[in-house]
Amino acid sequence: MRHVWRPLLALLVLGGIGAMAVSALQLDYRLDAFLPAPRTAQQEIVVEQVAGGSAGRLILAAVEGDDPMVLAETSRSLAAAWRDLPGVVRVDNGDWSDNEAIVEKLMQARFVLASDVAGRVEPAAVAAALENRLADLALAGSRVERLIARDPLGLVESLAADLAGGGRARTVDGVWFDREGERALLLLQSAHAPYAIEEQARLLDSLRARFAELAPAGQRLQLAGAPVIGVASAEASRSDALRLSLWGSAVVLLVLAFAWRSASAMLAGAVPLAFGVVCGLGVTVLAFGQVHGLTLAFGFTLLGVALDYPVHLFGHADRRALSATARNIRAPLLLGVASTLIAYVAIWLSSSPGLAQLGAFSAAGLAGAAIATLALPALDPALPRRVQPTRVTAIHWPAVPVLLGLAALGFLVWQGPERWSNDLSRLSPIDRAQIEADQELRSALGGGDVRYLIATAGDSREAALRASEATVRALEAAREQDLIDDWQAATDLLPSESTQRRRLSAWPAPGEMSERLAAAESGFLPGAFDPFLSDLAAARARGPITREFWAGTPLQARLDSQLMPTDGGWRALIQPVGLADAGRLAAFLERSEAPAQLVDLAEGSRAMVAAWRGEAGLSLGIAAALIVGLLWLRLRRARETLAVILPPAAAVLVTAALMSRFDGGLTIVHLVGLLLTAGIGLDFALFSRSFLGDPPAAARSRRAINTCALSTGGVFFVLGQSVIGMLQMLGLTVALGILLSWLFTRIGQPR
Amino acid sequence: MISGLLTLILIAAAGTTEAAAPDDLDRLVATLAPAGEPAELHFRERRESPLLSEPLVVTGRLWRNPQGQLVRRTTEPQEATYTLTAGMIIIERPGQSPRNYSLGHVPELAVLYHGLSALLAGNADALRERFEHELTRDETGWRLSLQPRDAALADKVESLTLSGSDDRLERFELTLADGGIIETELSRRP
Lengths: 751, 190
What we know:
The structure holds two protein chains of two kinds. In chain A, a hairpin with a 4-residue loop joins strand 11 (about 565) and strand 12. In chain A, about 65% of the residues lie in helices and about 10% in strands. Chain A is an alpha+beta fold. In chain A, strands 9, 10, 11, 12 and 13 form a five-stranded antiparallel β-sheet that branches. Among the domains of chain A are: about 1-35 and about 260-385, Multidrug efflux transporter AcrB transmembrane fold, CATH 1.20.1640.10; about 50-230 and about 485-570, no CATH class. The two termini of chain A are about 45 Å apart. Chain B is of the alpha+beta class. Chain B has four helices and eleven strands, in the order H-E-E-E-E-E-E-H-H-E-E-H-E-E-E. Chain B has helices spanning about 1-30, 105-120, 125-130, 150-155; strands spanning about 40-45, 55-65, 70-75, 80-85, 90, 100, 130-135, 140-150, 155-165, 170-175, 180-185. Chain B has an eleven-stranded antiparallel β-sheet with strand order 6-5-4-3-2-1-11-10-9-8-7. Chain B starts with a helix and ends with a strand. Mean pLDDT of chain B is about 80; it is low at about 1-20. At the A-B interface, helix 3, helix 6 and helix 7 of A face strand 6 of B. Chain B: Keywords: Signal. Chain B: This is Fatty acyl CoA synthetase.
């Protein structure tokens, strides 16, 4: 019993520090932390969009299960109820008629937003507009009189229709519906950041609660969008992580209990891991200021290597004091740690902030765990109680790993680019089924094509807006050729100042406008349109509107998502709608010398992932060369060096080939897993090789390696059962890699 | 006991008025309902507005299509088609894609739809279900006044009064809650 206290105390202290550190940490949950750092303006747009600038706050809602007219009524009352909720920036259902604030802003802005002013004030156009107003009057009577007096030309109605969906979304009773006319659709913007999961969860709950309060029985609400996905996947991953960590711990406990049969040894065995976590957290916080949530999750798994260190220590214990054993295994242990450190430092240098943190965390954690392992004798743990093995029958078939490794290499080369997966969404920690549900609702809303964006840039806001207007002119020509159906531009809400001034000066003075209205002889009383004429006079006096004009209205958010400052100026975005052939439109824009760039988010992200993987691959290649150099320096003989390198190298190649074939191509996560495999495999080979000349020590070494393979391999196999794609990829890669490393170390080393 | 007797008398009185009217309404509805091919009525509607120098005149045709919808096609002030169904109005104007709205937004048309479609379909029960009615006759003709039972509609429309002579519906008048009056003259020929 006396052996238990010190390890227990050490563990409690470290656990306390670790728990305190984690709870005091500023965890950063941004999804883009593991994305590569953008290099060009185009890549910047890709990362912004993938990380979910404004799209990350959008919630899509569908109400179904009733007569369309009744659903439309629900949509309206729901929009009104939701608008009152805290944490809601805007709610859109296509119907702005009861949104006084927007209607009033549009009334003010219509004189600078409406295009073709000259055409609208021609006698024939004025007469046609007034005929429409008479028809409105015939239909709705006194209810529309005020609106007609203020807007006889119907400018607000057409602006609202354009802004609310470009006339392409199907509406029933003025609110958005899906194409089948079965589901009323609403769009809502959350005030919370996409990664503020708890706030988003509360918001979603209150949205559902309001719906339950006011919707007639039988109607159903469906929510989608990044916040919904985020909340759902956070819940899924929380329960998933809990389940997996319980199973994983059970596996380790079971294996170690069988191997050591000593509570004291098991407690002491956890000390290096705990110390490693504390070191890793400390260094990451010092180097980066904050820790990404995913870094923590992955960092813990990368420290899985550290689980092996005490296993090697206890495995090699013989009748001498434990400190003697520690001295005995110091050389292979430190060599293994140094090699793995090289690789982790290489990751630390990655341009992706998440990966860099991961490298820092793992490197520091690993070094700490190794030092703690060598210092374990100070805690005076009991030694494992098992009969010492004395003999080994070695198998030396180096041809097996050599041939399998070469075959795997050949397969990878033959596969060509197929071996890589460039799908950025695979790297997202989000459940894929959720993403598909989201896309379905998004395309039902008609805003479906979010894959492309047309970007223009300028030194100033005005320059960016002018470039955007020039591009819109080119798009109008493109529409004639059926290259594009429609678009939503920043300039729909904020035309450039020069355009605004031109439009304002095209409006007749109020006196002349009054004459033109009278000339139509439509039966309206003189003075009927005085409210309109005074609005016109006010607009002419006010001059152009600015970006701040929309502040406080739901349209501000939309403008902000389409017009943003960049490092060297401003960027304006155009969202294309109904893009038939992106390649042809891009060529058309180039031919017409439009100052714009068609950004393919999917292609852009693919190219970025490829470039990023190239960069990571290069630094890992350099790391591998350094590791070989280090080993050679230390082992001094080429044959020994080769013997140590062969098992992990072959294991990595075969694992890579198998994962690439059966897991849909390799991603950066697979690379991280392979790196971890290489570190563990190298330890196996080093330990096995170091004690080859001493049969009892070799037997103990083999047993320690078996224990490592079972416990660590088991943990990663359990991790491979995760529903979160990233964890699943990592777990399976490492479990397979450990299995192969163990096999090749056992049978594949030369004599 | 007194109150009980009073109740009985009241019920009996109510019974007699209820019993007298339906016969007449049924007869009227039966004579108005077109036999054979669906009838088409030409209408000329007058509507006042403070914005206008003289009342707005709307002309066009009105009929009940095979799906039971009431179609109102105007020629003045603009060519447009309004299709009315139980809950919805579909508006088709030249140069615009069709739009649909809840009939709840245009209560006067909702009242017109319920009243006219029941009348054109010869369905007196539907009329009784939707409206309180009062039917009077004199030597010049008949006059049927309908008040919507639906509270939301009654809030906006006070009454729809139809009148004519013999088996002809010649005129109707919508009296709005705000005091506005829409007069419509109907004829079988333009």
